[in-house]
Write a structure and sequence with these properties.
By secondary structure, the chain is mainly alpha-helical. It is 53% helix and 8% strand. It is elongated and about 80 Å long. The termini are far apart.
């Protein structure tokens, strides 16, 4: 190969590098590691497609050709447009944690710091994925982490979410500063997060595991999930999973330290004992709840305890998550 060919390679890889690092501390990313570690990690078919699209195998540089055609006001043919779309998807896939951690120093540092806040998973990268799942899916219930108020969001924000993709490096940074930096090392209990995911409907379970880059077990490989392309689709998923609004505990059942006040924990303990001894929950009268996309009615569950009625939004919070959490917080 000639020296010019190498320069052409680097020019193409730098274009990909700039797109992958766009809007998140590009100065802390290593182009050499992107080229030498991340690119080789791509599936062979994807690498071959990028080589063909950018002319790295000695053929036509379709990327430059498409740019020149559009600049001249000409319409590219369908085959080259489809080739471009596929190349875009491959480059987009490198925004994932598995790739960013190979070449982005800030992401590497965040993985190390976030993993330290967890217990129950030895591999730092895997632990960070579960922690990211907790912060983005569980901690805020049906709301998104950037919602300034827990309630109906502005029409402008909801509309913007349909075109807003995910900047993973920036998201992890926000999660660390807003959530993980405020808890002690070893505080987040990954086995409870796993239990929560295992209790989801199969399609939602597959969707969540795929979105957070966590490998599916063999028995789930035949099932299809939903593709989460933007914040709008993520909000729809969260509002479907948290159909009865927020949990009573606001995600505290995933943390070792007991952050719950007695007026919250006491009724949960009573409900747990009542359900454990055979009490049958019934649906209470519907009441309005302000989801991000609008207000709608939810029906809480209730059980009788003597002269008092105890209401709660999710049976699994009490009967599934609470007993495992208690094993971690009790001496």
């Amino acid at each position: 190969m000639t020296g010019g060919y190498y320069r052409q390679n680097d020019d193409a890889y730098r274009k990909m590098f700039r797109r992958v690092c766009k809007n998140f501390q590009m100065e802390n990313a290593s182009f050499a590691d992107f080229r030498d570690k991340a690119i080789p990690k791509l599936p062979k078919k994807d690498r071959k497609h990028l080589e063909t699209f950018f002319g790295l195998n000695g053929g036509i540089n379709h990327a430059d050709k498409l740019f020149r055609m559009r600049t001249a006001g000409k319409r590219p043919n369908k085959a080259e447009i489809e080739m471009e779309r596929k190349a875009d998807k491959i480059i987009e896939s490198m925004h994932s944690l598995d790739y960013l951690v190979l070449f982005h120093r800030t992401v590497q540092d965040l993985v190390k710091k976030i993993a330290q806040k967890t217990t129950g998973e030895e591999e730092a990268l895997v632990a960070t994925k579960w922690a990211h799942l907790y912060a983005m899916m569980i901690a805020c219930g049906p709301y998104l982490i950037y919602d300034k108020e827990w309630g109906v969001q502005s029409k402008g924000l909801i509309k913007k979410e349909k075109t807003s993709g995910f900047n993973l490096g920036l998201i992890l940074d926000v999660e660390y500063e807003g959530i993980f930096n405020k808890i002690s090392d070893g505080e987040l209990i990954i086995p409870i997060i796993k239990l929560w995911v295992e209790d989801l409907d199969i399609s939602d379970r597959v969707t969540v595991l795929d979105f957070f880059e966590i490998g599916r077990p063999k028995y789930l490989r035949e099932f299809e999930g939903e593709k989460i392309w933007n914040y709008a689709s993520l909000r729809r998923l969260k509002e479907r999973i948290f159909y009865n609004g927020r949990w009573v505990t606001l995600g505290c059942f995933f943390l070792k330290e007991n952050y719950l006040k007695e007026e919250v924990l006491g009724p949960i303990e009573k409900v747990y004992e009542l359900l454990r001894t055979g009490a049958k929950p019934i649906l209470a009268e519907p009441e309005a709840f302000p989801f991000g996309t609008g207000e709608r009615e939810v029906a809480l569950y209730s059980v009788e305890n003597g002269d008092e009625t105890l209401e709660f939004p999710y049976i699994e919070e009490v009967s599934l998550i609470y007993p495992l959490w208690r094993q971690y917080v009790e001496p």
